[in-house]
Amino acid sequence: MTDGGLDATDPRTLPGFFDALADGDLLGGVCADCGQVLLPPRPACYACGSHDVDVEPQSREGRVFSYTEIHAAPPAFAADAPYTVAVVELADGGRLLGRVTADAADVAIGDPVELTVREPTAAEREVALEYETGWPVHVFEPR
Amino acid sequence: MPEPVIASVGASPLGRTDLPGRDLFSVALAEAFDGLPDPADIVEAVYVGNQSESYEHQIMHGTLLAEWAGLRHVPAERVEGCAAAGALALRHAVKDVRNGDHEAVLACGVEKMSSAGTSGATDALSAAFDRAIEQRSGVTAPSQYALLARRYLHETDATEADLAEIAVKNHANAARNPRAQFPKEIDVTTVLESDPVASPLKLYDCAPVGDGAAAVLVTTPELAADLDRPQVRIAGSGASANNIAVAERDMTTIAGARIAAETAYEEAGIGAEDVDIAEVHDAFTVCEALLAEAAGFAPAGTGYQSYRAPAERADGWTNVQLSPSGGLKARGHPIGATGLLQALEAYEQLTGAAGDRAVEGAETALLLNEGGVADAVTVGHVVTTAEAP
Fold first, then answer.
1. CB contact under 8 A, A70 and B136
2. Domain ranges, residue A28
3. Chain A residue with Cα closest to B195
4. Beta bridge partners of B273
5. Min distance B50 CA to chain A CA atoms (Å)
6. Nearest chain B Cα to A70, which residue?
7. Cross-sheet strand order for the sheet of A37-38
8. pLDDT digit string (tens) for B196-253?
9. Partner-chain contact B119 A75, CB within 8 Å
10. Total count of domains within chain B
11. Do both A52 and A69 map to the same domain?
12. Which stretches of B59-158 are DSSP H helices?
């Protein structure tokens, strides 16, 4: 294992990952042994178990792998419903879930999208845990 | 190594009840111990499947339910794995008996889901998903499975009408199950025209919110015989975790479920073709299709045919009957109790106690219980009255 000394500036922790994301940088873990992309980065590779995980910038462009339109939302997001959520396959091989800024009727599997980052809304801050309040929110925009 | 058996089962009413969780448990326990000595005379350990403290602001279910069973001073603990908690509790009981640690272990589960309405249940269940990315994007249990369903419909010949037929079949089974939350038949149009929840899943694609408790007494064969109880061997037990985030998994090949099922088959010395009935985790209609494939009952891409009679399914399907209880969809899905309700169904089917819903000649059952979305964690058990191979 090589991840001794992890602290909140390390992108293999959530604070480190979201700090970079707030600056517009999407960082992924890339397993030095098998190449698996890990989003967000973490100390261990789920594919092979290695703890030799590099952190590398990831393309923010990708394609819709699957999607849904949420009608019955959790209470914290009820005012947003209906909204679209997708799993996106990014150009560098990782997959990430996020909201899509389009009606589901205008989305299809394979559609090109791009990850963008915004500040959390007041409503989102209200339901955030104390340590999450500064974290940005990522969304996918059709391109 | 003693081979664990199920010696008795019990359940509370399922659905919207006026009883708190501990009282639901008392009802289930009373059925399981009807005609038996008191639990204190038999039971040596307790495991409780329970999803969330959100519903009743209560943890410590091991301590609480042991006490309510009259079992002070035994090891007792709550087991958590979202909707797989019940089968995880059963698996702990199986291991204790196999290891010779105990001759009788109570595996039970309870959930009081109706306490905060549908929105409370939606919120409690969303805690099963990755907090950093998924929860903050507003996912729900139906939306997570909807992502699998959309992909499954994209990759296979299945249609939304096929998924609807799975719900129709399970409601028809539940109509013959006096324990079912929804013992009534429905038709495909009802499913297809029901309110959208998370497209392509609609209200009738989804298992209901409901309360319930179940109790399963796991013992050595000798003790079950001493108690003069019909016994069903728990011949195999497997479990597997997978990624927490659905995005990082193969969304149409449910690898963890395959590992759980194959481990259970291997321990039991059987193959998928030997399974007569299966209670699979049909929390959403698409799950039954995916799990039929993962369990080895159906070739890839044909699991959605589970609603059809065996002769009308694709080549390569086994003759298994899925969800004879009505499944999570219509029998009910009180989260922490579900894995034990699956075991209860198998016990009743294999001991001639399934009444009108009995699957003729059934000797061997597979139970597949999932927690989180799909195979975030899966537990599989093979239970059987057949001679050991």
1. no
2. 14-57
3. A71
4. none
5. 21
6. B198
7. A37-38, A27-31, A53-57
8. 999 999 999 999 999 999 999 999 999 999 999 999 999 999 999 999 999 999 999 9
9. yes
10. 1
11. no
12. 61-68, 85-98, 117-126, 141-155
